Amino acid sequence: MSASYHRDVGPVIQMIRAFLRGRSWNEQLRIPQHLSPRPSPQPELPGGPSHKTSANHYYTRDARRLVEPPVQVVMSTSKELSAGHAGDGEDANNSLSTSHTKAPKPGLTHRWD
């Protein structure tokens, strides 16, 4: 057998198949003998960042590592009122504070130190 030989059923089976189908058999496979030749040379592309795998570590290509917390663009400069004497004249100005309390943590916390 040569490499250019294409396998198919015998001529009797081909006639029976064409009669039962009502049309001739059209093979759906892309066999190289039935395709046009490709005389163009293979492209010579330059290597990219993933070309040499010896110096190409996975963590440098992982886009998930580039994700960071959102950046706060505008700082809030408004003063907040603290709990206390908000109705008094001078005390109202002194009761303005910029300190924040931490949010409570759910569950029991254990202090190691």
UniProtKB/TrEMBL annotation:
- Where do Polar residues bias regions lie? 92-101
* Main location group: mitochondrion
| Span list, region Disordered | 30-113
* Tree of life domain: Eukaryota
Q: Name one GO cellular component term.
A: mitochondrial inner membrane
InterPro entries given in the database record: NDUA7 (IPR009947)
BP GO terms, sorted? mitochondrial electron transport, NADH to ubiquinone
Give a Pfam family name.
CI-B14_5a
Q: Which UniProt keywords apply?
A: Acetylation, Electron transport, Membrane, Mitochondrion, Mitochondrion inner membrane, Respiratory chain, Transport
Q: How does the protein's chain sit in the membrane according to the entry? A: Peripheral membrane protein
Annotated localization: Mitochondrion inner membrane
Please describe what this protein does. Answer: Accessory subunit of the mitochondrial membrane respiratory chain NADH dehydrogenase (Complex I), that is believed not to be involved in catalysis. Complex I functions in the transfer of electrons from NADH to the respiratory chain. The immediate electron acceptor for the enzyme is believed to be ubiquinone.
The subunit structure is: Complex I is composed of 45 different subunits.
Protein family according to the UniProt entry = Belongs to the complex I NDUFA7 subunit family.
* UniProt protein name: NADH dehydrogenase [ubiquinone] 1 alpha subcomplex subunit 7
Task: Please tell me the species this chain comes from.
Answer: Oppiella nova
